[in-house]
Known about the structure:
The complex is a heterodimer of chains A (544) and B (46). With 544 residues, chain A is an all-alpha fold. Helix content of chain A is 69%, strand content 0%. Chain A folds into three domains: 1-163; 186-235 and 242-325 and 503-528, no CATH class; 334-491, no CATH class. Chain A has helices at residues 9-37, 47-82, 89-111, 129-159, 167-198, 207-235, 237-240, 248-261, 278-290, 292-312, 330-352, 358-361, 365-395, 402-428, 444-447, 450-480, 508-531. Chain A starts with 8 loop residues before the first helix and ends in a 13-residue tail after the last helix. Chain B has one helix spanning 13-38. Chain B has a domain at 11-38. The longest helix of chain B is centred in the middle third of the chain and has 26 residues, at 13-38. In chain B, 57% of the residues lie in helices and 0% in strands. Chain B has one helix and no strands.
Amino acid sequence: MSERAVPSTRLALAHLWVAILAFGVAAAMALMQALSRAALDLPWRSARMYYLSVTAHGTLMALVFTTFFIMALGYVVAERTLGRPVPHRALAWTGYWVALGGTLATVASILSGKATVLYTFYPPLKAHPAFYIGATLLVVGSWIWGFVVIRSYVVWKRGAPGQPAPLALHGMLATVIVWFIATIGVAAEMLFLLIPWSLGLTKTVDPELARMLFWYFGHPLVYFWLLPAYVVWYTVLPKVAGGKLFSDPLARLVFILFIVLSTPVGFHHQFMDPGIPASWKLFHAILTFGILFPSFVTAFTVTASLEVAGRMKGATGLLDWLKRLPWGDPLVASVLLSMLLFAVGGFGGAINAAYGMNAVVHNTAWIQGHFHLTVGSATALTFMGTAYWLLPRLTGRELELGLLAKVQPYLWFIGMVLFSISNHITGLMGMPRRIFDASYGGSAVAHAWRGLTGVSAVGGLFLFASSAFFLLVMLGTGLAGKRIAPQPIEWAEPLEPLSPRAGLLDRYGLWTAVAVLLVLVAYAYPLWAHLHMQTYGSPGYSPF
Amino acid sequence: MTEHDAPHTAHPKGTLFLIGLYGVLFVTGWFAVYLLVYLRRGGVTP
């Protein structure tokens, strides 16, 4: 299928541009926060502006940039791996407009100061109904996307019975399944608690139930971000690096393990919450350690694929294959650096997930240090690298400002090391997260954090410069890139030939059923017990 | 030379070294926080 003949390119591009623009606005918000926490006296600096910008940054980065980018990648994968247009294109466009409309409503409510509830929107912090309804529409739009991706597979499968899905599509199907299971929680929170409450139909809200439903959604949300990044690591990176995928079956196993294990782990975000028995928290903690395993397998398989690439270029020693990798390629550099940062993030995650040790880092700056290594690096930096690879192929334009694209991943890496490591350390020193002024009015304890908040701010400057480079490259390519002959979208071949027959790891219905069963085991009783507990509703609270 | 004799199909010794090194650092780091931070502060479990 020629690139020009692909009808859904516009669909993918429309999603990609929303993601890029959301990233740009969110990045601008982030700079102000990093400088504000270092107590620099900026114009218009105030607590109100700080928390408004934290809400906008979190919502635009974590919910809008990621979701629209993943939808764009999903359409590309569904279409290019199967070699046929996605079905239900009118429905797919409807999903786009629903998600975009919801996003605009949510962002408008935040920027007008009526929804300063942070991206976790924990009640009793209360937002304007447009925030909740808009976020719900974003999810509804993503459900339509997920339906179209699944239908692409089902329609293809009818003409190819018994064949396994191409690996990239296998990963995207796992992403969709994880997303469908996860968003049941946030849909319930929105429809039964937050939207009626914000509309004044109910007077009070149950904050603990809302948190339980949020984190049912909130942790698998991490894997909704991560699995598409893994799709790129497994199926694009080895090809661009000049090698082959080390093991297709191992990669398939990883995606299936994420389907099964992503959701029943949410209580590790609620170790400090009352009302949830310790035994259930421990059960979720054990499952959380289980979900480290597929990421370790990924670290092995992707690194081995890179070693294959280096050895295909003539490397023979223990590590000299690392020098043979194309470190100057923006996609390769982005993914390699994101993997390095994610390795540190994984270590921190194992501390967050430990029932006892979580008490040391809970709600401290450690947490923001951690998730900027995971979603802020493993996901965001991979997505930026993927955009360098994808945008020229979708637009038929040459990547412009190539030097900036080469430098940008390294700036991000330096910035993130400065930002995240300093936040991990200040977190251990007791600095809370989500505070407007880290000086605490000149307290002696807070004085000890001062140097490191400055380091964090310098990291923020690097990250902002990196973000600006990324946006310049994207806008330069999209608006003024030189027209070139269409480049193919190619996927990595496995080192060993792939079995032509679908196996146990390709039975999505079975693994979805296993996942749902495990979710019921992990959540049914605690939820039932909470609903039968004497609880006290809270009225809404808007600090600004 | 057959495909299976080619250097790129050999055992990924460099990868195993790096993953092993990461494993050692991971476990060492985890226990360092456990022993030097968590237990030193009293080892409170919620």
